[in-house]
Amino acid sequence: MSEEKLKSPMDRRNFLRTCSSFVAGGVALASGGLLAAKASAKEGDVFWQIDPYKCTQCGRCETDCVLTVSAVKCFHANRVCGYCDLCGGYYRPNVKELNTAAENMMCPTGAITREFVEEPYFEYTINEELCTGCGKCVKGCTSFGNGSLFLQIDQDKCQQCNECAIAKVCPSDAIQRVPNDHAYKLKDHA
Amino acid sequence: MRKLYRNIAIVTTIFLLALSVMLGVSYYQMQQVSPLETGVMETLKELNDTNSDNEALQQQIRELDLLSRKAYFVKEGQLKMGFYLLLGMALVLVVCLNLYYRETKNLPEKDFDPIDDWMTKSRARKYLGWAAAVVALIGVGFVVVQQIDWSNMFNKEILAEVQDEGESLEVNNESSEGSGEKVDTLATDSVKGEEVDSAEVDDMPELKIASRAFRGNNSGATSAARGIATSWNLSGKKNILWQSSIPKHGYNSPVITGRNVFITGADAKARELYCYDVWTGELKWTVKADGIAGSPSSMPKVNADTGLAASTVATNGEEVCAIFATGDVICADMEGKRLWAKNIGVPDNHYGYASSLLMYGNTLIIQYQNNSNAQILALNTKNGNTAWSKKSNDKIAWSSPIIATLGGKSALVVMGNPAITAYNLGNGSELWRVECMSGEVGSSPASAGGVVFGASEYAKCVAIDGATGETLWEASDYLPECSSLAATKDLVFCATSYGMVCAYDAKTGEVKKEHDLTTPFYSSPVVVDGKVYLFSNSGKVYIFSASTFDLITSFETGEKTFATPAFTDGMMIVRTDKSLYCVKK
Amino acid sequence: MRKIFTILLGILYSFNALAVARFPKPDFTSGYQYPDIVHGAPNELFWNILDVVLLIGMMGLVVWAAYKKRGRAIILSMSLVSVLYFGFFRSGCVCSVGSIQNVVTAAVDPNYHLPWYVLLVFLLPIVFALLFGRVFCSGVCPLGALQELINVRNFRLSRAVSATLSMIPWIYLAFTILYAATRSQFLICRLDPFIGIFRLGGDLGVMSFGIMLLVMSIFIGRPFCQFLCPYGALLSVFSALSWKKLEITDKGCINCALCGVSCPVDAIRAPQNSRTKEERWRGVKRIILFAILLPILTVAGSVLVGTQSDALSLAHKDVYLYELLQRQEANPELDEPLEVETFHALGGDIEELKAKVDDIRGDYQFYAYLIGALIGFVIGFKLLKLSLKRGRKTYEIDMARCTMCGKCFNYCPQNQPTRRAISSRTSITSKNNIPDK
Q1: Which ipTM score applies to this complex?
Q2: pTM of the entire structure?
Q3: Does B380 map to a domain?
Q4: Interval C339-397: pLDDT, tens
Q5: How far is C189 from chain A (nearest CA, A)?
Q6: Domain membership of residue B339 as a residue range
Q7: Which residues of chain C make contact with B101, given a CB cutoff of 8 A?
Q8: What is the b/e burial string over B137-147, where b = at least 16 CB atoms within 10 angstroms of the residue's CB?
Q9: What is the bridge-based pairing of β-strands B283-288 and B271-277?
C-alpha cells in the first residue's frame, strides 16, 4: 500500500517532466528551423573590413585590436600613388632634408621604404611585418598626397572575432562585415 | 615520490607568480604607452621642424628612435616567449599537483553526518531572498539617484578633472620613459623658444581655457574660466600678476592660447604681431607684416583712435593670424615663425578696417565688408589659400563674425548692413539671411541657446531663431554703437555709448534690468563665472551678476580701456591704451 | 595631437569630397610595371565545417563514455583535445556560449547574417542536452575543459551559497539578450575571461579575471560554469528535462555514501531524510506563498530593469554619441571628444541621429522590461523550487547541475568490482541510510 502511495507522486512528476521535455524539444526545433531558414537565405561567409573612404586615421586601430600586434595594416594602392619624391606619407610635414634620418620619417617603425624607379618617381612599399597600423603615413598621404595609402584589416592575421573590438570604437563607423567575394576593400581606381 | 611532486609544485608556483607579474607589467606597459608614441619623441621631432640644423638635437632623435624601436620589437618577442613559458610552467604545475593528490580522494567524514536537506534548502531560500532584496534595493537606489540633477556638479568635476589632467600630463611628460634624464630637460627647456630661459615657468600648470578670438572662443562673449578676481588695483599692484607695455598702438583685444597672449599694434612705420607670456608678461616674440606683395606703400587714411590695428587676431592653438587696415594678413606659428602673409586688397574704409578675425579648425574667416568689394573670405591657415569666398552687395560694416551653434551644428553668423546672415562654415553657403540692420553697424552679434542676437544703434535689437532664421523678437530700448552684445540662455547684455547698460529677456526682448552709468562703453561685456565683466572707456570696471544683472561692484583702474578682456584659468588679460596687464587673485 | 587631427580631418574631408588626385598619375618611360600585391586569404569554410563535425563527434564520444563505459579517462582526454583545438588552435571563437548573441540578433534583425555553422554550434549542444544532459559542458566546451584540466582538489561551497550565486548566469544571460537584441554590443565576447589566454593577448583586466578564475578552479570545481556561464544556464533548463538521466553506476546504487562528496559541482543528491521535521501545512503554505510571489517578482523585476532602460541604452554607440553631443553643446568650453569631432567633421546631422536614438531607446524599453521579467521570474521560480520537498531512495545526479566530468564514476565501488575497498578508514557497512517509510 505504501508503495502505491509513493507511486502516484512519482508518476505525476514524471508525466510533468515528459510533457516539459516535449515542449522544450519542440521549442528548440521550431526556433532552430526558423533561424535555419534565415541562415540559409544568406550568402557565404563575411569578414571584417575597413571602408578606406570612411576611415579618419584616428589611431585606434593600432591600440584597440585584441591581438598584441594589430591585424590592421597599411596597404598601398600603387595605381593611385603619385610616386612623388616629397611623399606625404614617407616624410614628416615641414621636412628639411629628404633623407632617411629618424627626425624626418613619418613611420615610427620604419615600415615604409622606397626605391628609386626613374626621375622623378619613387616606388613606396610597406613592410607588413613592421607595420603596426598606427595610420600616420595614411594621414600624411591623404592630407598632402593622393591618398594611395590606406588602412585595412589583414585577413591573415584577423581572428574574425564575433564582435570586432576596433569596430566598436571606430568614430566614423568605418569597419563592417563584408561577404567573401568582396574580401578586400581596396582603393583601386586612380 | 610524493614529496618530490610537492616540491616541484611549490617551486613552479613561485616561478609562475614571478613570471606572471613580470609579464603582466610588461604587457600593461606595452598597451599603455601606445607603442613608439612617446610624447618626448613627438615634441623633439616638432622642435626639429622649427629649429632646423640643430645637429645635436637630430642626433638625439635618431638615437632615441633606434632605442625605442629596438625596445618595441624586442618586447614583442619577449612577451610571446614569456607567454609560452608561462603556459609550459602552468602545465608542469597542474601535472605535479595532480600526481601529488592522486592517491587521496575526497572521502566522506568519519561520522558521516546526513546532509540535512531541509536545512540546506531553508538556508538557500534565505540567502537567495536577501541577495535578491539587496540587488533590488540597489536598483531602486539607481532610479532615485538619477532624479538628482548631477549636471552642474558633473560640470565642475569635469573642469576640475580637466585641470588636474593638464597638471598630471605635465608631470608625466617630465618623467616619461626615454633614454635618459637629459633628454627630458632638453625638451621642456627648448619648447619655450630659442634660448633656454628661466626655469620656474616650467612648473606652471598647463592652462586649459583659451580665448582664441575677439570676445573669447568662437567670439562667443562667454568664458569657462573660474576664479577671476573681482577687484584689483594697478598702482598698488593688488591682484596684478604683471603689467607690460605694448610697443605700438591698437584697439584690438588680447587673445590667449596655452601660454601665449597675442596682441597687435601698428603705426605708419610698421604693423606688428606680439606674443607675450601669460605668466610673466614678457614679450616673447614679434612678427612683422612686411615684405608682402600687394601691400600699399602709403598707409590708408584711418581715424587716429581706430588706428591700423583695430582687428583682433584669431588662433586655433597652432597658428595665429592677424589682419591690419592695410589689408595685410599674416600668419605665424606659436614659436613666432611667420608661416605666410598676403594682402587681400586695401579696404576702402573711411574709419579704418575693424572687423576681427575668427578661426574654425584650419579655416580663417575674414569679414571683409567695406565700401566696395564686400565679401566673406575663408582662408586655409596652413598656406593662406582661399578655401571659399562669398561676395555680396552688403554695405560697409565694422562688426566681427561669430560661430554659433544653430540647429545643433556650428555655423558662421555675420552681422552687416543691411542683414544678419548665417553661413555654412565648410563652404560658405548661405543658411539664412534676415534684413534687420541699417546705418553704421559696429557691434557684433551674440548667440545663446540656438538663438542669434544682434543690435546696432541706428537700427534695432533682434533675436533670430538660429535653426530657421525666423525673427523671434525686436526691441529698441537701448542699442549699442561699438560694444557688442553678450548673451546667456536667459538674458542679453547690452552696453551703449551713452552710458546705459541693460539686460534684455532673451525670450521676449523685454528689458529686465538697466543701469544708467553715464559713461560711454566701447569695450564689450563678457559673461564669465556667473558674472558679467564690463569696462568703460575711462577704465572703470563694472561687474554684474549674470543671472539678475545686479551691479556687484565697480571701481576705477586708471587706464582707458577700449579693448575687451580675455580670460583663462583664474586670470584675466586686459589691454588698455597704454599697457597690457594680467589680473590674478 | 588632437589639434593636428582636427585640422587634417578638415582637409581630409574636403579631399574625400572632391575625390581628385592631387598629384597626377606618373608617366613611366622606363617600362616600370605596377607590382601585383597579394593579400592574405581570409579563413576558409573548411575549418568551420571541421568545427561542427568535431563538435558532434566529441559530444557523441562523451555520451558513450558517460553512459556506457563510465570512464573518466576518455572524458579527460576530450577536455585536452578541446582545449588544444577549440581553444588554442581556433582561438576560442566562435564558441557556443557566444553564439547566443548571434542567434538573438538574427531573431530580431532580418538583415543580420547568421552563418549556418554558428546556428548549429548553438543548437547542437542544446539538442544533446535535451537528450543526454550537459554533454557539451563536460569535455567539449573549451572554457569548461580548461577549468576541468586544472581542477585538482575540491573544497565544497555551502549549497545555500551556490544556490544564490547560480542566479548570476541568468542575470548575465538576460543582459546578453538585451544588448544583443538592441544591437549594442556582444557582452559575452567583451567579458569572456578565457579568450585572452587562448589568443595570447587581449584586454588586461578581463584576462586577469580569467586567470583568477583559473586559480580558483584548482580548488573549486568550475567556477565559471557554475556561477557565470549564461549558456550553462540555458543548458541546465534543457538538461533537467533530459530524456536519459545519468546514473553513477548501472549496477544499482547500494547507498554506500562514498560518492557523496566527490562531485566538483555538487550535483549528487543524497537520499537522506531531513533532520528538521516541519509540519506539512507549513510547507504547503510556503509553496502557495511563493507561487503567489512568482508573478509579483516577475513584474517587480520587469519594472526595476525597465525603468533603467534609458541609462542602459548608453551602451549603444549612437546613443552614447548623442549624449556626448548634447554635453558638448551645453558646455562648449570643454575639450571635444574624438567622436564628436569626427561626427561634425564628417557632416553629421544631429536631427537624423536623434531619430535613430529615439528608435533605439524604444527598443531598449521593450527589451529591458522583457529581461527584467525574466530575471524576476527566474528568482521566483528558484525560490519556489527550493520550497518543494523531494524524496529519494538512492544517490541521484541532479541533471541540471551535472557537467558530466565523470569524477564520481571512480568513487563508486559498484564500478570497480575487482578492486579492493578504497581505504579502510571508512567502513562500507556504515549506517544504512534508507529513508524511513
Answers
A1: 0.81
A2: 0.62
A3: yes
A4: 888 888 777 788 888 898 999 999 999 999 999 999 999 999 998 888 887 778 888 89
A5: 7
A6: 217-584
A7: 152-153
A8: eebeeeeeeee
A9: antiparallel
